[in-house]
Amino acid sequence: MCDICGGITNPEYEQQLLTNIQRFGWTVQFIEGEHGGRNPSYAYTLGLSLHGHPEFITFNCHPDFVGRELQPLAESVLAGRQFDEGDHLGDLFQPQLLRMPDSTTHLYTANTMFRRPGDPPIEALQLVWPTRTPWLESGR
C-alpha cells in the first residue's frame, strides 16, 4: 500500500520525498499499475533533474526491486556521468535508454515539484528492457 493510501497527507508525502532527496541526492516514485489492466506499474527517479540530468523511468517494475534497478544509474549521475538516448549501459546492466518526448503525465510528481512555470516538462530517459532471448529462439 502506498503512503498516501495509508493516511499520510500530500504535504507530508512531499516532505518525505524532499528529505530523501536531500539525504541521498535522489529518490524513487513508484506508481502501482492496474491489476489485470492495461496500465502497468512504473517508477521514476526524483531529484536527478536538480543536478541538470533527465530523470529515469521504467515500466512493468516491482516496488521491492525498482530501487536496485535505478540505483546504479542515479549514483553514476551523482558522480558526474551524463546519459542520453542510445547510450550503451553494458557496464551497468542491459537496458537501452530512450528519450521520453513528454513527461507531464508519467512524471507528475517531478513536474509538480521541480518544473518552473513556463518551463518545458522535466526531461526523462526511459529504460527499455530487452524481451527477446535469441539463444532460445535459435534452438540452442
Question: What would you say this structure looks like, in words?
Answer:
This protein is of the alpha+beta class and 140 residues long. It has one domain. 28% of the residues lie in helices and 17% in strands. Strands 1-2-3-5-4 form a 5-stranded mixed beta sheet. The longest helix has 15 residues, at 10-24. It is globular and about 40 Å long. Mean pLDDT is 86; it is low at 133-140.
Pick out the low-confidence regions.
133-140
Number of helices: 4
Mean pLDDT: 86
Query: Order of strands in the sheet with the most strands?
Result: 1-2-3-5-4
Please provide the ordered H/E string of secondary-structure elements: HEEEHEHEH
> If you compute it from the alpha carbons, what radius of gyration comes out, rounded to the nearest whole angstrom?
16 Å
Tell me, briefly, the overall form. Answer: globular
